Amino acid sequence: MDFSDTPTEAAFRAEARAWLEANQPTEDEFAGLGELQQAKLWQKRKFDAGWACIRWPKEYGGRGASAIEQVIWNQEEARMGTTFGVFGIGQGMAAPTMMAWATEEQKREHLPPLASGEHIWCQLFSEPAGGSDLAALRTTAVKDGDEWVINGQKIWTTGAQFSDYAILVLRTDPNVPKHKGLTYFFLDMKSPGIEVKPIKQISGDSGFNEVYFTDVRVSDAQRLGAVGQGWQVALTTLMNERAAIGGGGGGAGFRQLFDLASRVQIDDRPAIEDRSVRARLANWYVQEAGLRYTGYRSLTALSRGELPGPENSIGKYVGASKGQDMASFAMDLLAMSGAITDPEFADAAGLFQDAYMGAPGGRIAGGTDEIMLNILAERVLGLPQDVRVDKGIPFNEVPTGAS
Amino acid sequence: MNFEFSDEQNLLREQAAGFLGDNCPPSAVRAILEGDAPFDADLWKQIAELGWTATTIPEAHGGLGLSYLELCVIAEELGRAIAPVPFSSSVYLATEALLLAGSEAQKEAWLPKLAEGKAIGTFALSEGPGHPSPRSLATRSAGGGLTGSKLPVADGDVADFAVVVAGSDAGDGASLHLVALDGDGVARRTVETLDPSRSHAKIDFDGADAEPLGADGEGWGLTQRLLDRAAVLFAWEQVGGSNAALEQAKAYAMERYTFGRPIAGHQAIKHKLANIYVKNTLARSNCYYGAWALSTDAPELPVAAATARVGGIQAYYFASKENIQTHGGMGFTWEFDCQFHYRRAKLLSVNIGSEGVWQDRLIAAIEHSRAA
Predict the structure, then answer these.
(1) What pLDDT, on a 0 to 100 scale, did the predictor assign at position A161?
(2) Cβ contact, residue pair B3, A381, below 8 Å
């Protein structure tokens, strides 16, 4: 066991770090730009130098790098503090799906602008009636000549308001069992008939949207996979959703809570000297360390050219609840002041209050806690699937609870 | 990045698992739990023949001179098998105390015998309810004789010698002593515990012959260093046990039917088992870090050991109690083996300082590393 890079990995890390240090945007370059513009500027610079989406083949805008090189790059870029999340869905989920299912011509057309940051993509999967039970989605596509006509509603779509393209799953046949009647497409978000409405979250932010479709037309050429094969294509996307290494983290971690407990007082002593405070902090440290070293084990597998094991999928499940509980505890330590969000008075610029209000979303997005447990139980432990009363029943005969 | 055991270490794991599968099945655990024998002497003999007791002892003292990574591998398998042998007392504690603080003569006297399994050692710290401190230790040395009572001492009724922590007026308030347990002034008797698959004793010293182990007044510091090392190895036993408990729960859930299907298909059970898996995985990863810190004697060892220990305590307790719950009423019967894990989990968690002690040590170690 050791934590060092192999000589090849070390050489790659040095090359990556040197480029990053020489090319990181200056404060002057970022001045006056919004976050989206900053992200696009940085992405384009990486793309032009061959440092964007480095695992992708070169012909699609990548570098043909290995998985471990991608991880090393991610670590080095994170160290520089120049990462942006806005391209995550397009590059992390839409692109792998396109690589697996699109035509060569489509890949050459669409992947390079994804890598360069010119195009932003979103993912139109969830619906009011299709979340955890995604295959129960109801937005329809009806064939009309060489086109399909889309009607219905998607929801929880991150970044829809500024996306250029979308991947989406639609119901093309309601007369067959639910998984068999789905078809997968990609489409231009500027198509007529698309209406994007932001959703205001309990945190006050609006990170995601409702997306309405009224007679939106998409070419049959933009279908990925066969008609009725949409569920299979969607699995390609979903498998990439949680492929990121590690987990946990976030703004309000152990370090921030430890610092807080060192500066607030209980009975005239720093809270950190209180045994019950120490016990709870210790438990969170143990969780955070456990996630970190689980990530190291995955990195080792990657470094050896193996695929990481399923243990990696626990990151989001553990991290989300941990973040929620830590934020809640931090506010308790602040006592009455824990409730303050007013920037003039809030401790740590409202870090813990923000984390508290954002945490419920973390436990739901990208697979709820309960779905994550089902995945672990079924795919890792090999336990039987749930009984499905809609199995084998035509979709339009499945009880919905709606009138 | 290489955060994995070597091929040779994984081969050792397979061999250990195979050996214990054949020679330490649940029936062997039950035989000790229900019978009068304090431990499985045949198994102990075979373990010694395999060289497990000699793992980290240098070759010059009759050992194999292997790394702590090998010992971690063995610890996990012993934990998985709930092995009824005095391995942790003799190897993680007594042997390690000698390696840490023993004079050349003391090492020469005991390490070859420990390596061969011909001598069993133990570590005597506890003096009744509560976690001891230098101020609370009533056992003292005076004029070359040790006087006081230790309760309980794991394997104290079968050990040949004990490393005893005694109070001292010097230095950090404690000193370590090496005491042969068959000499004058030593009275011991077996004490029943929650886990009868491991033997425990009360030992009364009345002017017993005692050699100092390490300097007078450095005993408390040595004890903490010893406990850090032992904590990693105990944590590996706990992780081995946690995984065995999960496998037991899963096997039962797959074959037990209610409402027309295996209970493993009900979400209440699936989520329970998935949560055991999550805790076990985090605990295992923390044990990896502990193993690395122990094997390299890294300055991070106090943090790594406490992290592994807290995770191991919590994972094994959770897995062992939810294993019984998964079994329903049958899990509560004497006839079923679920009780073995429930007993061993608690024994391992109160040994060498319990959860609260290690949570506090963890935060203290983090404070210390930040101040440095």
Answers:
(1) 95
(2) no
